[in-house]
From TrEMBL:
This is Lipase domain-containing protein. It is found in: Secreted. It comes from Tetranychus urticae. The keyword Nucleotidyltransferase does not apply. PANTHER family: LIPASE, LIPASE MEMBER H-A-LIKE PROTEIN.
Amino acid sequence: MVKFARLSFFLFSLAALVSPIFGQDYSAYLNNRIFQPCMKPVCYDDVGCFQPFKLQAYLGLPPVAACPQPPDELGVEFKVMRYNNSYEFFNLFGISPNSSVAYVIPGYRSEHTELFNMELVDGLLKHYDQIVLVRWDLGANPSLLFDIPVTRYNKFLAAANSEAVGRIIGNSIDFIVNNRSINPDNITLVGHGLGGNTIHFAADWIKEKYNLTVGKAVVLDPDAIPFYFSNKKISGKGDAKIVDVIHSTFVAPVPVLGQRFAGNTKTGALTPTGDSDYFINFPDSWNDQPGCDGLEFCSSHFSIMTFAASLHGCRFETKPCSSNIFQRFTSKEVGLDSSQTGPQGRICIKVSEKPIKRCS
Ligand SMILES: *[C@@H]1O[C@H](CO)[C@@H](O)[C@H](O)[C@H]1NC(C)=O
Ligand SMILES: *[C@@H]1O[C@H](CO)[C@@H](O)[C@H](O)[C@H]1NC(C)=O
Ligand SMILES: *[C@@H]1O[C@H](CO)[C@@H](O)[C@H](O)[C@H]1NC(C)=O
Ligand SMILES: *[C@@H]1O[C@H](CO)[C@@H](O)[C@H](O)[C@H]1NC(C)=O
Ligand SMILES: *[C@@H]1O[C@H](CO)[C@@H](O)[C@H](O)[C@H]1NC(C)=O
């Protein structure tokens, strides 16, 4: 509460300072959704109505309940990318009919992870005719005042925004199914962090509105904070015909203080939700993935690197995720793809530093 009060004071001081300079009402520049509770559903054209994202379990910092910003404030863009001797970019009209498509959806503060990394892009292009890069920079790192985002304070609004972004992605899926003759089975959704959380919202929306289900989802280190103890679900089983979840960071499902965790980039889910849930280097990964040494985003990005390595053909040693942490890894090696192996349930895998180096 102290921080919140301090922030409010800071805002009002800043507002008082700038309004004479600009000679107009500062409120137009102030994104008050970041700290003002949203208690009633909001509705927008094309994406329908949203129940407030309930955040009471997160004391101190957030706004008790948050609603997504209007779609035009989220900065959602779809870029189609294909490789044909060089990388080519198109809009959704550029998708070839009757082909296969993988969506790539980055997470919180996603401008830091734009394109994720080339290993992932190249890995996906080995398996899919094209990828659809989903940008949602503004929604993923909402600005507080003018164009200035305030990390931590805006995490909860970004989470609420992920629901609207999911539905916008859902509308684009309906478009490519109907306009570009893409078979829904030929669509895979890949999302990291909050981008992984958008998948459940996209899936719910297309099921309800268009009676569609996509073939596959790959959910990379989905955010558990602030989804635990809220009224919103983490992506999982049923969101696609096959759902693989790859976990590289963990928070325990206990109610938490918002400010302790909001700015943390290690807020992945401990609970399994998919047809297969791959836990990387569990339980050592409570702390950090190999080579990360506390580097921001690194342990969470480790799930991306590991999935990319799998797309390039790498296999990983496995062991059951029993409570006996001394149980050895077996020599059984798996790729991370339930459509090849069948559902694996909860499974622990061992991945060394720079996963892709070993087998590309
Ligand atoms: C690849 O590029 C060549 C030459 O630019 C073009 O003729 C061909 O149609 C392209 N193929 C696809 C699948 O876009
Ligand atoms: C795509 O498939 C549909 C039927 O699934 C077919 O009618 C259409 O001609 C195909 N389009 C192309 C360009 O192959
Ligand atoms: C799925 O995509 C592949 C190309 O990757 C294509 O050959 C196949 O016809 C597509 N399936 C359907 C049902 O459109
Ligand atoms: C695809 O969408 C465009 C623009 O909305 C429209 O002009 C075109 O007729 C559509 N094509 C099909 C096959 O639905
Ligand atoms: C929904 O789609 C499935 C096949 O994909 C079809 O069997 C079913 O009848 C559809 N339901 C409605 C209400 O249109």
